[in-house]
Amino acid sequence: MARGLYVGRFQPFHRGHLETIRAIRADEAREELIVGVGSAQDSFQWNNPFTAGERIEMIGRALDEARIGGCMLVPIIDIHRHAEWVAYLEGLLPVFDRIYTNNPLTRLLFEQSGYTVTDTPLVERDRLEGTRLRSRIAEGQDISGELPPAVVRYLDQLNAPARLALLRAERNAPPESDRP
Amino acid sequence: MARGLYVGRFQPFHRGHLETIRAIRADEAREELIVGVGSAQDSFQWNNPFTAGERIEMIGRALDEARIGGCMLVPIIDIHRHAEWVAYLEGLLPVFDRIYTNNPLTRLLFEQSGYTVTDTPLVERDRLEGTRLRSRIAEGQDISGELPPAVVRYLDQLNAPARLALLRAERNAPPESDRP
Amino acid sequence: MARGLYVGRFQPFHRGHLETIRAIRADEAREELIVGVGSAQDSFQWNNPFTAGERIEMIGRALDEARIGGCMLVPIIDIHRHAEWVAYLEGLLPVFDRIYTNNPLTRLLFEQSGYTVTDTPLVERDRLEGTRLRSRIAEGQDISGELPPAVVRYLDQLNAPARLALLRAERNAPPESDRP
Amino acid sequence: MARGLYVGRFQPFHRGHLETIRAIRADEAREELIVGVGSAQDSFQWNNPFTAGERIEMIGRALDEARIGGCMLVPIIDIHRHAEWVAYLEGLLPVFDRIYTNNPLTRLLFEQSGYTVTDTPLVERDRLEGTRLRSRIAEGQDISGELPPAVVRYLDQLNAPARLALLRAERNAPPESDRP
Amino acid sequence: MARGLYVGRFQPFHRGHLETIRAIRADEAREELIVGVGSAQDSFQWNNPFTAGERIEMIGRALDEARIGGCMLVPIIDIHRHAEWVAYLEGLLPVFDRIYTNNPLTRLLFEQSGYTVTDTPLVERDRLEGTRLRSRIAEGQDISGELPPAVVRYLDQLNAPARLALLRAERNAPPESDRP
Amino acid sequence: MARGLYVGRFQPFHRGHLETIRAIRADEAREELIVGVGSAQDSFQWNNPFTAGERIEMIGRALDEARIGGCMLVPIIDIHRHAEWVAYLEGLLPVFDRIYTNNPLTRLLFEQSGYTVTDTPLVERDRLEGTRLRSRIAEGQDISGELPPAVVRYLDQLNAPARLALLRAERNAPPESDRP
Fold first, then answer.
1. N or C: more exposed end of chain A, with fewer CB within 10 A?
2. Which domains are seen in chain F, by residue range?
3. Which chains touch A (3 or more CB pairs under 8 A)?
4. Cα(F175)–Cα(D16) distance, integer angstroms
């Protein structure tokens, strides 16, 4: 069975991500898609507010809601060494033969290793941009147009606006520091 | 939705593992089960011959063959610090509320954190023991009684007997050494 | 015996830190206070100029001078994974039951784990701010109003102005680089 | 002020350790002694059953009971690179000028760096040996002759025999494994 | 035999580096010079576009072309702990007794350890500055005046302008991210 | 230019290693040979007594003495993840196209990546075996038949018998432990 691989940080998982996965799954109906949740070790930071587990939860709920099947959700801890990125994923994940990405560096690294790389559609990129969405959540604004309904509900359950407001205010103060 | 967690190294995934998962899924039909593939960073060692990706592949095929659904397969990289093990899994994985294990240390660590821990059945433990199975594979013996048919076929495809024979012979010689 | 925990980087230890500890010790006279020296692995950087050992030395001298007892000074190496921060400290330190902090993220992480968290007073925050104090030291300005006398003398002994001037000038040039 | 340094794993802290510290403090009454708790990252293993925090607790109680003052207890996380061991401790700890050890490797590494190294007395070494003591605790035997009374009481409070019996039985089964 | 040590990141290796090495070798004709390639673990980043291996290759070709002998090229992986930097290099490298650097922090750390530190000449520093050179390469400009001819040819062979243009555009998007 | 790669730990560098390199260089006179010094982070352990720098020194002297040129000596820090071993070396080292090894695991990993792997001759393997040689050195026996003369002299200069005797006696006592 052929599999695709699509990696992101999904902080949070928004409609652009969902439409990307829907398009991949529609186009390649016979494939399974590995959805890699990157920077899995990071959480409770302004740029990475949600744990890998929370991100897997929100993605799973959004895919269920959208009735998109055939996805395997996997947390991926960073290694921070780009030259070993492809080999690391090859060891961590079941065999895949196609990469879906709009990140040129990812494209370069996988093409160097002989993989087929496919562009992902950019869905309303300006509006569906991670930093902008985190800011809107932190400010308590309505993001129901940008996120799948299941994610909106889950973020509400997590009390996400309070967490994000806190992390934005303290973005230079990790817990090992006394004061910002 | 409630989820269970069952962690092992699965080197290889044998009938005991399969029956454990079948029993969990039968008993708790409403739950999803996270199957954590431990020591995910290790491979090509005598005690850990298969990569995390290969182990996910063999488990997935065996579960499909046995028509067992509702399992989420996740690679788990070791942190080697037991006091942080529960917190690490809580961050890495979606929420779970029950642990299935026959490892007393796992039981202790999770009970200290307030989790419900359930024993797993020990299916023919002497026969279905990892080291014994790896030795039998390395010796080219028939292990079709011990492993699910899908795993037997997959190991054949991986040319597992040759790999295991090699790793057993060189178990003191990592690749950074010139000679055993 | 009940213990409190107060974590900071203390680069350098200033009068605000000292007054915070004095207030904690006065208020909770029966408790021991663990003073955690965070980012203990960092030194000789503009944001972290002093080693953990030097910081323990300056704190110890300032507490002696101020006749504040009952403090245990402990270096704490970063783990950079916020989801495991509480579990990490629980393993590293003797039992504590109260956290003193004005860092909202620290508050959030410890409250999630069921701890009592107490605000620390902010003593002249604008004036007693780490970056500002490091700049003043680097410029050779008088900081005797901002630091405890014992710290002033110790920084003099360390030849701190020269070190800080150097680190400020070269803040983009770690020792593995040839030139800034 | 001159300081000494004495590093051990203290799994558990026994009467030999206590008498060593008493002798150092008696002989060098003017010095402070840093007691470094080594392998601080390890716990819940047969060779390292107690967390660093638990070891600091038991040492602190034993020193209080014996009315030995002037000791600074510090957890020390391993770096596993012997060539950097001295430099690592120099950065982590306040200045020390004398090492107390009966470990010839420690002696060698510190003497190479110009430190004064002093032998520690070996108090009933055969009887007061870590592995033997852990075995006796695991077997529920009386160890009140080998451990300071405060440590005996603290281990009782920790339910140490159960933990040690468990860790001895499962010494090849870390929590990432399903079965021993 | 006495040896010198000269450490840089060499992203890329330019004429200033070459003239520095030429001057060291001319002045100290009897010495061998260790050329340490720092941040060896980094590559495919805007600030560190080339792998350690590529940097060793370009330096080796440039030295051959300039007929400069007696250099030992060594990749040096960062440890990110400045207090251990000298001890780390002492363990990793054959004995050296002189450091060549214009980095004041390197000077400070090595002088503290008793080494002789010699300034390196700054050759046209504004023009031969790493970030500026990387920008010029990314823009496809002529850099034959700034780099040794062998490096110009090697970068051409690596298709460096395309790599650098890509890394500059995506400098906030590591491969674990889906989109910049 | 084509290059070969030969990796070992060289604890110590003995006549078998020297004859292997001589044979490679004789057979492939046009190639450069990268001699990788593995487990470079380890030293002052019974299995890894010498630092990477000391091993580079002894190899360099032995090659000079034997008038074998064209070798590039490189320390290689372990990554302990076999699935990434080839990618790691590809990033760390200049391009190589042939591996010399008698380690079947190394052969397997490189062949999987498409490299040409060549067996190295086993020169008196029983006699020239690392553990045996370290034991003989620790016992003060004559090893002038087993080691190149330059290595014999260098080990004498290092006072190697005393170091090895110490490490053999204390092989279970790292410096973070108080007593063996």
1. N
2. 3-169 (3.40.50.620)
3. B, C, E, F
4. 18
